[in-house]
Write a structure and sequence with these properties.
- By secondary structure, the chain is mostly helical.
- The protein folds into 3 domains: 11-91, no CATH class; 94-176, no CATH class; 194-301, no CATH class.
- It is 61% helix and 1% strand.
- The chain has helices spanning 11-27, 35-49, 61-66, 70-80, 84-91, 102-113, 118-131, 153-171, 173-176, 194-211, 214-225, 230-237, 241-265, 273-287, 293-301, and strands at residues 94-95, 100-101.
- The chain has a two-stranded antiparallel sheet with strand order 1-2.
- Strand 1 and strand 2 (100-101) form a beta hairpin.
- It is globular.
- The protein starts with 10 loop residues before the first helix and ends in a 15-residue tail after the last helix.
Length: 316
């Protein structure tokens, strides 16, 4: 049997789906999906998720429905069916601890990806809304049809937006490093080579690492030096996995803002800042003596924990 093909539904599965349908109607009556369309949508979404699933094959309906983010899934289905109230929910969605609107979070990432290029920032966000329903060469299929319902919708859309823009940047990298005629001309005598700007980036990254809190330093060390997943890190801090994910997102955002500000202060002409993050930030962190095994062990001891046994370091 094809693992992406839904198994036959038992009587218990049909009951679960019936209950789920009426739960959606009660929780969001304004997104009124006819039951037949509801059944078709849940069948399609199952086939989107099943190939990614690691575990029982075929994935049972009980297991799939147990992990479904029901109301996010309903908003997605409503948007795909052209329901205005579903789009209103999506536009009003909030993101993480910053509690920013989805569109504002997309604009913020566009600013990082295309610094000093307001036109491209606005174009990236505007085009993304269209790609939710209509594919282009990079998306291959409407973005919303790829949502599997297993992750919260808003963070997933932000990740898809960022990945899509990275794809475009890498494809058009030579364009991202060329000055437009309206860009400020660098000051005379100031070096402008890529190597120079990477040096400035690395200096700024080290400066940011020096001023973060010990708890954040420990988190980054466990994640990148020891390669622990959010799930394994969470018990160390006595929090849930989602809290660790949000803290990592917050630190990444903070690092972007800090380093971008320092680069601009040095008259950076703009370019692919994200490429520097991908190629340099890991080395900066692992080369910092504050992230040595001894230092991380000391930080762990302050909260009564120990380094995970038999966990290889990435660099010493």
């Amino acid at each position: 049997m094809n693992p992406s093909s839904p198994p036959s539904r038992t009587a218990a599965d049909e009951t679960r789906l019936k209950v789920l349908y009426h739960y959606c109607r009660l929780q969001m009556p304004e997104i009124a999906i006819p039951e037949m369309q509801f059944q078709d949508a849940i069948q399609r979404t199952y086939t989107v998720y099943a190939p990614k699933h690691k575990g029982e094959i075929p994935l049972s309906w009980e297991s799939y429905l147990a992990g479904l983010n029901v109301l996010d899934w309903l908003v997605c289905v409503g948007c795909l069916n052209g329901l205005e109230r579903a789009w209103e929910h999506l536009f009003a969605a909030r993101t993480g601890r910053s509690d920013a609107l989805l569109v504002d979070a997309l604009r913020k990432r566009a600013c990082w990806l295309y610094p000093r290029n307001e036109e491209r920032q606005e174009t990236a966000v505007a085009e993304f809304w269209g790609y939710l329903l209509v594919p282009d060469n990079d998306t291959r299929e409407p973005i919303l049809t790829r949502y599997d319902g297993r992750r919260p919708l808003t963070p997933w859309l932000i990740t898809i937006f960022q990945n899509l823009q990275i794809t475009k940047l890498r494809r058009d990298r030579k364009i991202a490093t060329i000055l437009d005629s309206d860009d400020p001309i660098p000051l005379p005598g100031r070096p402008t080579s890529e190597e120079h700007w990477r040096d400035i980036f690395c200096q700024s990254g080290r400066e940011w690492l020096r001023q973060i809190k010990d708890q954040d330093r420990l988190l980054l060390g466990l994640r990148w030096r020891y390669g622990l997943t959010q799930r394994k890190i969470a018990p160390i801090f006595d929090v849930n996995e989602g809290t660790i994910t949000r803290r990592i997102d917050h630190l990444r955002n903070e690092a972007h803002e800090f380093i971008y500000k320092r680069m601009v202060e040095q008259d950076w002409p703009g370019g692919d800042l994200l490429d520097m993050f991908l190629s340099e930030m890991g080395s900066i962190l692992l080369d910092d003596p504050n992230f040595s095994a001894d230092q991380l062990s000391r930080l762990l001891s302050t909260i009564g924990k120990e380094l995970p046994e038999a966990t290889p370091t990435k660099s010493e």
